[in-house]
């Protein structure tokens, strides 16, 4: 029935976001939890009982998810570790999941745009594992030579990547090298078909969104507004 309603619309109806997006019953208590966590209290049950006395009306599971996330942050050691290996301090600004996409964004960000707390995260990642350090360094080197247009450094990077201990990097380097002339031209020249490919991808996305919802005149209208 909903699709039939969309077909009868003369204009495109934008999708509404959830009104409670980003809100949590735990939000008012997060600063308190972080302060207690930084003082060494990592007992979820005790933290739960403490914030209940402060007016928290949510469930234990929400607090448990929050503390489980804190334990995944770089620098947090096992429960039996000594104080020397205790977790690093956590601030409210660092309360963001360290997902693969966020790590990728941090690693490939321009150096002048990286914040001090983000530099600490990258430093912890570099010291976490030798393979991870190699992957980060090679990714940063490749990004640098592409941005600065340094084709003379491309061959050296290929040699490093193909001899890397990370199999995915080796495969990536071999794949790039198979189209060496195009890659070198991309590093050397300022012109690119990237904008054109971006427009094509966006138009394809609009086409998929409108499939079965409206006639060609509305689809055409959306295309013209998107360009």
Q: For the terminal residues, how far apart are their CA atoms?
A: 31 Å
Oligomer: single chain
Helix coverage percent: 55-70%
- Main sheet properties: none
Morphology: flat
Low-confidence stretches: 78-87
Strand count: 0
Strand content: under 5%
Number of helices, where a helix is a run of at least 4 consecutive DSSP H or I residues: 12
What's the pLDDT, averaged over the residues? 81
In N-to-C order, the SSE pattern is HHHHHHHHHHHH
Question: What class would the helix/strand composition place it in?
Answer: mainly alpha
Radius of gyration: 25 Å
Write structural notes for this entry:
With 227 residues, this protein is mostly helical. It contains 12 helices and no strands. Among the domains are: 26-95; 194-226, no CATH class. The chain has helices at residues 2-8, 30-38, 44-53, 60-72, 100-108, 116-128, 130-147, 154-162, 167-177, 180-188, 194-210, 216-226. It is flat, with a radius of gyration of 25 Å. The two termini are 31 Å apart.
């Amino acid at each position: 029935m909903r699709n039939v309603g969309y077909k009868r619309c003369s204009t495109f109806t934008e999708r509404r976001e959830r009104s409670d997006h980003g809100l949590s019953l735990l939000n008012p208590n997060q600063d308190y939890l972080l302060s207690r966590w930084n003082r060494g209290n990592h007992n979820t049950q005790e933290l739960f009982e403490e914030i209940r006395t402060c007016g928290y009306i949510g469930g234990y599971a929400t607090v448990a998810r929050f503390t489980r996330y804190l334990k995944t942050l770089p620098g947090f050691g096992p429960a039996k570790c000594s104080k020397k290996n205790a977790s690093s301090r956590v601030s409210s600004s660092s309360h963001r999941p360290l997902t693969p996409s966020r790590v990728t964004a941090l690693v490939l960000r321009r150096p002048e745009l990286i914040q001090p707390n983000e530099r600490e995260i990258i430093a912890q990642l570099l010291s976490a594992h030798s393979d991870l350090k190699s992957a980060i360094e090679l990714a940063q080197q490749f990004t640098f030579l592409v941005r600065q247009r340094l084709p003379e450094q491309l061959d050296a990077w290929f040699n490093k990547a193909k001899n890397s201990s990370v199999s995915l990097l080796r495969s990536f380097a071999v794949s790039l090298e198979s189209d060496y002339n195009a890659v070198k031209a991309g590093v050397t020249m300022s012109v690119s078909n990237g904008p054109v490919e971006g427009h094509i991808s966006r138009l394809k996305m609009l086409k998929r969104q409108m499939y079965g919802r409206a006639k060609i005149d509305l689809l055409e209208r959306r295309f013209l507004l998107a360009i």
